[in-house]
Write a structure and sequence with these properties.
The protein is mainly β and 112 residues long. It contains 2 helices and 10 strands. The chain is 9% helix and 42% strand. The strands form 3 sheets. It has a 5-stranded mixed sheet with strand order 2-10-9-5-6, with no helix packed on it. A 3-stranded antiparallel sheet has the order 3-8-7, with no helix packed on it. A two-stranded antiparallel ribbon has the order 1-4.
Length: 112
């Protein structure tokens, strides 16, 4: 009996596939303060999603929406929101990660 046959006969492996991120989140540079930032991924075989900001797990709040979905929204962007946003996509077999960067415009340019 080959190794392939052993795994093929197990119910756990017969329907499961590794997750894959097909569309990475896009970095956002010089966003105006107060605007909305949206990071999204598109993945196959994903069972769960989780977003982190600079290594800290995000939770849904009045400013953060979709912390456990494929699309994270940040309302009323502030300078403290700058940094790296990591999306973890996983299922029972494996996980995949990808990240994007957010920077906030620090200067108010007046057009004359």
């Amino acid at each position: 009996m080959s190794l392939h046959c052993v795994f093929r006969n197990l119910p756990f492996f017969s329907h499961a596939a590794f997750p894959a991120i097909l569309q990475q989140p896009v970095s956002l540079f010089d966003l105006p303060p107060g605007s909305k930032a949206v990071f999204s991924v598109r993945a196959t075989n994903a069972r769960s999603y989780r977003w982190l900001h600079d290594g800290k797990m995000l939770h849904n709040s009045d400013r953060y929406l979709g912390a456990q979905t494929a699309a994270l929204q940040i309302l009323g962007v502030r300078e403290t929101d700058e940094g790296r946003y990591l999306c973890i996509v996983w299922n029972e077999l494996s996980l995949q990660t990808d990240e994007a960067i957010l920077t906030v415009c620090k200067y108010n340019y007046a057009l004359s």
